[in-house]
Write a structure and sequence with these properties.
Order of helices and strands: HEHEEHEHEHEHEEEE
Shape: globular
CATH superfamily: P-loop containing nucleotide triphosphate hydrolases
CATH topology: Rossmann fold
CATH architecture: 3-Layer(aba) Sandwich
Largest sheet: 8 strands, mixed
Distance between the termini: 63 Å
Strand content: 15-25%
CATH class: Alpha Beta
Strand order of the largest sheet: 5-4-6-7-3-8-9-10
Structural class: alpha/beta
Helix content: 10-25%
Number of helices: 6
Number of domains: 1
């Protein structure tokens, strides 16, 4: 009598075949883009994990890409650490995020920014954390990775595309490059089969989104750093 081979998921939810996307083990938030969700383990952005978005340059559409997930986490707080550009509250509103939910932290050094992000993750006080960094020490990356696993925060680190060549403990690493009408997403690392072709995602134009009344109240202050009165767009 021939015995059938059990599926990896029947042994443990965290196991999967190399030819398939991992399905179990992590809570995920729908990306809001069906084509992208289909290509991600768990069919969405994983929470309680480090996500590495590697940008050709800031402003290629990364916030519009994250917009649906950040909207879905309402009314909980969103922490922004070391934002790279001048504040644009109206841009956040056009992206569907109320500015009163935003907590902005600025620090003097990248090491301080990593420390602030680690404290936010450990406290599990924000539903999402976006951290802008250029280069991080390996030990800082490991600390952030472990801190992310201690809670359920949607943790996204935004770094230059040049960091793609560096090793990272991130569960998911995607490259974002601009394309006409949207962005091309490259799959550098995911729990599943390798995908060599980039995925094009059409992004909504901010000036076509619904214009909600703008709340210009200053975001809640952060104890871990000086706070901008307005936040990056």
């Amino acid at each position: 009598m021939t015995m059938s081979t059990p599926s990896p998921q029947s042994i443990h939810s965290g196991l999967w075949l190399a030819s398939q996307l991992a399905l179990g083990g992590a809570r995920c938030i729908d990306t809001g883009f069906a084509a992208l969700s289909k290509e991600l383990p768990g069919r969405g952005w994983p929470t309680g994990a480090l996500i590495d978005l590697l940008l050709q340059q800031p402003g290629v559409g990364e916030l519009r890409l994250l917009g649906p997930a950040l909207q879905a986490l309402a009314p909980h707080r969103i922490a922004l650490v070391q934002t790279p550009h001048a504040p644009q509250i109206i841009g956040w509103h056009q992206n569907g995020v109320d500015a009163s939910r935003l907590l902005s932290v600025r620090t003097a050094t990248s090491a301080d920014a990593a420390w602030a992000a680690e404290q936010i993750l450990k406290s599990d006080s924000c539903a999402a954390l976006l951290l802008w960094q250029r280069h991080l020490r390996k030990d800082s990356l490991r600390r952030l990775h472990l801190a992310a696993q201690s809670g359920n925060t949607l943790f996204v680190m935004l770094r230059p595309l040049s960091c793609a060549q560096d090793a990272s403990p991130a569960a998911l690493r995607l490259s974002l490059t601009p394309a006409a009408g949207g962005i091309d997403i490259g799959f550098i690392k995911r729990r599943g089969p390798q995908r060599d072709e980039p995925l094009f995602i059409s992004l909504p134009s901010l000036n076509l989104l619904h214009h909600a009344p703008v709340d210009r109240r200053t975001p809640a202050p952060a104890a871990v750093g000086s706070v901008l009165s307005e936040l990056v767009g």
